[in-house]
Amino acid sequence: MKVYKPDNLPDTLHLLSKLPGKKLLLAGGSDLNILIKQGKLSDEAIIFINHLPELHGVDICSTKLIIGATTTISEISGSAIIKEYCPYLSDSLIDFASPPIANFATLAGNIANSSPTADTVPLLLVLEAKLVLKSVTTTRIVPISEFYTGYKKTVLRDDEMIIAIEIPLNFACKYQPQYVKIGSRTALTIAKVALAFVKYEDNFRIAAGSLNEFPRRLYNVEEYLTIHPQNIDASELMDALKMDVTPISDFRSDKEYRLQVCFNYLQKFIESANTD
Amino acid sequence: MIKLKFTLNNLPRELIVPDNMRLLDLIRDELNLTGTKEGCSVGECGACTVLMNGKAVCSCMILACQVMDAELETIENAAQDKILKTLQDSFLKTGAVQCGFCTPGMIMSAKALLLENLQPSEDQIKTALEGNLCRCTGYVQIIEAVQLAAGIIHKDS
Question: What residue segments make up the domains of chain B, in order of their start?
Answer without folding.
Answer: 2-74, 78-156
